[in-house]
Amino acid sequence: MRVLPPSSAGPWRSPLRGPWLTSVLGMVLLVGIPVLFVTGLLSYAAYNPDLSPVNDKTPDKGLLGLYLFSWPTHPYWLYRLTQGIHVTFGIMLVPVLLAKLWSVVPKLFALPPLRSVGHALERLSLLLLVGGGLFEFTTGLLNVQLDYVFPGSFYPLHFYGAWVFLGAVLAHVALRLPAALRAIRTLDLRAELRTPTVRTRPEPADAGGLVPGRPAEPTMSRRGALGMVGLGSAALFLVTAGQSVGGPLRRTALLAPHGRAPGSGPNGFPVNKTAAAARVGLRDTGAGWRLTVRGNGHTVRLTLDELRRLPQHGSSLPIACVEGWSTGDQYWEGVRLRDLAALVGHHADAPDVFVESVQPAGSFRAVALRANQVGDPRSLLALRVGGADLSLDHGRPARVIVPNAPGVMNTKWVRRLTFGSTDVGERT
Ligand SMILES: Nc1nc2c(c(=O)[nH]1)N[C@H]1C(S)=C(S)[C@@H](COP(=O)(O)O)O[C@H]1N2
Ligand SMILES: [Mo]
After folding, report:
1. Best residue for ligand 1 mutational test, from 327, 402, 410, 413 (most atoms within 8 Å of Cβ)
2. Ligand 1 close to Cβ of residue 394 (< 6 A)
3. Are residues 116 and 159 in the same domain?
4. Which ranges of 115-153 does DSSP label H, i.e. alpha helix?
5. Residue 249 pLDDT
6. 319: containing domain
7. In angstroms, what CA-CA distances link 72 with 54, 373, 405, 411?
8. Which residue's CA lies nearest to atom 11 of ligand 1?
């Protein structure tokens, strides 16, 4: 049997593989992945997890929560933008990630698997890098696209996975960036984009063993390979971005589960969880419904008609879900949260509030809002949207709407507001 030198790496014979191609794809990820990290960490901060246990899906975060800050209500569209970018870029980077993995596949299967201690460490960091990357993209995609199928909650998996992935990416960049910058200068991108398949030559042999020792005839040019990745990303953009961007792209958002308007009329915007799915019916939200407002030792109970007789205000705000879909600005009308706080004696400074739904169970039935969110004059307990009463699926008779908050904070079918508290568990 003939022993192959490392650079021949057995079955991997594509003449396109080489440090240049890997580095070009790496540079795209080097720009894209930090954007995913930053927008992801912002999304985590937007949940205000340090405010209340009900907001905190990762209570064991320890030092990883050090950067948290009180999420602002201005500008009202910021979360829609950052989370739209997070999900859209994440989906668009999938072809780049897969192409990059394809380009280094001889390394992933290199034999012998461990040559020295240094080699073992390098392989371990690659395992965390590849495993972490695949894990983050898979959990993210599944959360957005499907009924979630991973065991356990999405949030801790994606959150802790992100830190592992970040560590591996930083190590990888520190180790590889100088070589990648050198490799990228070995071919001229613009010339490659003009080179057809017949004139495609392998890159010069490399120490890393990406370039095959016995290259096969090219079946595709580098232009073709990069074009395929680019077209893949562009196609994914076309079938998903509409869920966040809106406008005419909304009609092409074929892959976005909540992307397209499910109906017409004022309540014809996406529904994350229907009343039926939340096991909320007319029994809980009909004539017998009362809103309980508590705080400062006072308790006030209001019927829907009494709520309607309080000063009504309007604000145009979107719903922007962590899953990346968002509505355009909807015109909500109802009672300001800070006016409701005043009903129980919080006149000067708005306090935090604990919001509870009539929904009997589920992790989104309660949420805590921070004082800045309560105090914002655009924050409402909404009774109407687009000039019509809320539909049952959108939270009839009353739901919270807050500027620049993740959709999950806009609790539907509200039953009780406790001002000056962020966790009613201990007090109920
Ligand atoms: N009671 C209750 N309120 C809820 C939810 C829920 O599951 N239960 N889902 C939240 C989430 S995750 C989002 S994105 C928004 C979506 O609002 P919509 O269904 O009216 O579009 O409602 C929020 N309010
Ligand atoms: Mo959501």
Report:
1. 410
2. yes
3. yes
4. 117-145
5. 86
6. 282-426
7. 19, 8, 8, 18
8. 408
Given 194, 227, 247, which residue is the final one in a domain? 247
Phi (first) and psi of residue 354, to 5 degrees:
-110, 120
**How far does residue 194's CA lie from ligand 2's centre (Å)?**
45
d(CA 217, CA 220): 9
Specify the pTM: 0.94
CB-based contact 408:321 (threshold 8 Å)? yes
Residue 122, pLDDT above cutoff 90: no
pLDDT tier at 250 (50, 70, 90 boundaries)? confident
Cβ 99 vs Cβ 25: under 8 Å: yes
Domains identified in the chain, total number:
2
Q: Is the CB of 319 under 6 A from ligand 1?
A: yes
- In this structure, the answer to whether residues 295 and 216 fall within a common structural domain is no
Same domain membership, residue 169 and residue 45: yes
The answer to whether 354 and 366 have CB atoms below 8 angstroms apart is: yes
pLDDT tens digits for 82-118? 999 999 999 999 999 999 999 999 988 877 888 888 8
Question: What confidence tens digit (pLDDT) does each residue in 49-69 have?
Answer: 999 999 999 999 999 999 999
Ligand 1 atom with the smallest distance to the CA of 320 is: 14
- State pLDDT tens for residues 176-190: 999 999 999 999 999
d(Cα 351, Cα 377) in Å, to the nearest integer?
14
Q: 83 CB under 6 A from ligand 1?
A: no
Mean pLDDT, the chain, rounded, equals: 92
Among residues 402, 300, 425, which one has the least CA distance to residue 354? 425
